[in-house]
Amino acid sequence: KKDQFLNPHLDNSHDKDRNSWRVLNLLYYVTPNWQDNNGGHLELWPNGLKSSQTTIHSKFNRLVIMATHQSSWH
Question: What are the pLDDT digits (tens) for 38-62?
Answer without folding.
Answer: 888 999 888 888 888 899 999 999 9
